[in-house]
Design brief:
By secondary structure, this protein is α/β, with parallel strands linked by helices. The protein has one domain: Alpha-Beta Barrel (TIM Barrel). It contains 9 helices and 8 strands. The chain has an 8-stranded mixed β-sheet with strand order 1-2-3-4-5-6-7-8. Helix 3 links the parallel strand 3 and strand 4. Helix 4 runs parallel beside helix 6. Bound molecules: iron/sulfur cluster (SF4). Iron/sulfur cluster binds next to loops.
Length: 269
């Protein structure tokens, strides 16, 4: 059972948080922000807003079903397709008046040491910020929320949070689900400008497992379920799975809504 905190203020000791951030940064932080891809505009990535999208390079998970596996490895400084933070500032400036928001996705954006500088620049230019995260770095998420640098958070929940073994299977590496539980609690403070997201993996997300996943979350945050796109998967096994049809996705979500009438559950196409 999750223990949810009502507000993020006064809940985390700042010194511990700073030390944790520093310690973590020596292990897996990406010192200089690398953006692998940029998308000039999108109508689907930020709820009800036109957005530009920036994809950060590097992820701390290694999900076998990942459809952006080119974004998992550590960035190389000479990768011609990467954009550094100055390029990103220029790109954001060029989108003023054309988009209302910027979506930062990955990879795992929170790994990047100078992400706050990019978000501050975006906010100064009057754009809203949406952050997509796998939830493994709650102390960094907490800092961004507290500093008012994010307007909307999409937190991916891959498996029931009390089942570490299953979560590890979905993530491809051992995962501290306690960290994701902490992130899940943090985003409730942003509600309704936050969401949980689950990509339904065929053969992995049985109705029973989806039920366990939902049961472990609060019913105050909208939870979106998306179809899996096997054509972009990282491994052959996942590539060969049948895609989830729109009807199948709708049916699955309808069944879940019946079982959990007090949870705001939605299908996203
Ligand atoms: S967390 Fe997302 S980006 Fe990272 S490996 Fe998993 S699916 Fe890919």
């Amino acid at each position: 059972m999750l223990t949810f905190i009502p507000r993020v203020d006064n809940q985390v000791d700042e010194n511990i948080q700073r030390q944790a951030a520093q310690k973590s940064s020596t292990r897996k932080n990406v010192r200089h922000l690398r953006i692998a891809e940029i998308q000039k505009s999108s109508l689907t990535d930020y709820p009800r807003k036109i957005a530009c999208v920036l994809f950060t390079q590097r992820c701390n998970l290694n999900c076998p079903s990942c459809c952006k596996s080119q974004l998992i490895p550590i960035p190389t400084t000479d990768a011609a397709e990467n954009y550094d933070i100055k390029d990103c500032f220029k790109f954001i400036d060029s989108r003023i008046g054309l988009v209302e928001s910027a979506v930062i996705t990955g990879g795992e954006p929170l790994l990047h040491h100078d992400l706050p500088a990019l978000l501050a620049h975006i906010k100064k230019r009057g754009l809203s910020v949406k952050l997509d995260t796998n939830g493994t770095l709650p102390h960094r998420l907490h800092c961004l929320i507290e500093e008012g640098l994010v307007d909307y958070v999409s937190l991916e929940i891959k498996a029931p949070l009390f089942d570490k073994a299953l979560y590890t299977k979905a993530a491809g590496v051992p995962v501290s689900t306690d960290k994701i539980i902490e992130s899940a609690a943090l985003v409730t403070a942003l509600s309704p400008k936050c969401e949980y997201k689950t990509i339904i993996l065929p053969g992995f997300h049985t109705l029973e497992r989806l039920g366990s996943l939902i049961r472990g979350l609060p019913n105050t945050v909208p939870h979106y379920f998306q179809a899996y796109a096997p054509n972009r998967a990282r491994t052959e096994y996942w590539q060969n799975l049948p895609p989830t049809t729109p009807d199948k996705l709708n049916n699955t979500v309808r069944l879940l809504q019946k079982s959990f009438p007090s949870h705001p559950l939605f299908a996203r196409h």
